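Homework-ish question, so no full write-ups if that breaks the rules, but can someone show me the predicted structure for this set?
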Amino acid sequence: SKFQEYDFLQFLDLEKAPSPRRFQPVPRILRKIFQAREAAVAGGPSQDLCYVKELGVRGNLLRLLPDQGFFLNTQKPSRDGSCLQKYLYFNLSAIQVKGTLTMARLTLDLGPRSYYNLGPEVEVALSVVEEHGVWGRSHPKPGRMFALQSVPGPQGPLHFNLQDVVKDWNSNGLKNLGLYLEILAKEDRHSGVNFQVENTCDRLIRSLHASLLVVTLNPEHCPSSSRKRR
Amino acid sequence: AAIPVPKGSCRNLCHRHQLFINFRDLGWHKWVIAPKGFMANYCHGDCPFSMTTYLNSSNYAFMQALMHAVDPRVPKAVCIPIKLSPISILYQDSDGTVILRHYEDMVVDECGCG
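A: Not a homework solution, just the prediction itself:
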């Protein structure tokens, strides 16, 4: 008989079958949680599906949103060591209002860890964009800076808690105009080691990957007492 | 006296029937990353009085089967799931977002008369 696909999709809380153009790489954290859940089902003990122990937060729906922004400059690093400026944008429209936001974690992957890219130190600055630029003419204007982090070497993933920023966008009426990322490479005149800042910036522009992990809790599926009493 | 087990083959008695939904058959493999499908098992079969004494059924089922044996107008106990497990689906939406979603009580692990 004709399989009632529509009803099945509705049952899975989906309006229609998604049609992704290409598969995104599945981040290790989601794969790890999925495999742990599969193993728990096979192993038998009842599990609390409303608590994500790998992240230490409550939630029953995890989304990893890809960055839909673009680089604002890829010229040579400027005098003040600014390596790159990037406009980050995450489409949060799919985050249903009925779910409670329990985590919003921005990950900036600066590239694979290696022994030969040990420096220079870089500074990562994140601001909320408060004014859209005009395409091709003016850049998005950075507003309030909410994170500034020095990193000894330009490599590996950096995590930033964006829960307050996303809450402002989701429920406090502030428009999601995206984020402004600036990475500065700091010459280290004292160590005598002359890191090729220019190479560092080129490599960062090639390897930088941004994503936003959002965890929501649907109160209909996760009543507050759903956590098993110990 | 020991109640004779009904002559009907065990196949008619309440038990779990396995049914696997393969997402590829639905064309969902284009957006579901994992798993490849899931067990949509179901419970079906007869619940005669004798069943309720050894198939881990509820006391209520035992009483209902007893009442049915006394007065056939009382409906029999029915074959229902008594142990369920969740599934997790890792999929990608049209926006390129990778989503991990958990659904409670999706797979029937055990059936009984209830």
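Now go work out the reasoning yourself. Hint: Chain A has four helices and eleven strands.
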